[in-house]
């Protein structure tokens, strides 16, 4: 994929690569607050999800992607589905 120099997507890609390289080279943890889930999923091996300041999930990217509470909080569900989603959520 050829991105124009200075494009936002190009900057994001370079930033992701830099963060990943720093983490691997320096063997350090990186605390990242990010709302772009594609970025989070690409560079994280452990994720903690907050909803209005309350921790709702903690795990690997795959666990977070499949967590019904995360899905409900970030993608939304119809009112009639709330009880069904909550019943699938770990206490």
TrEMBL record:
**Keywords on this record?**
ATP-binding, Nucleotide-binding, Transport
**What is a GO molecular function of this protein?**
ATP binding
Task: Quote the cellular component terms of the Gene Ontology held in the record.
Answer: plasma membrane
Q: Name one GO biological process term.
A: L-valine import across plasma membrane
Domain Branched-chain amino acid ATP-binding cassette transporter C-terminal, which positions? 54-79
Pfam families found in the cross-reference section: BCA_ABC_TP_C
Name of the protein in its database record: Branched-chain amino acid ATP-binding cassette transporter C-terminal domain-containing protein
Provenance organism: Methyloceanibacter marginalis
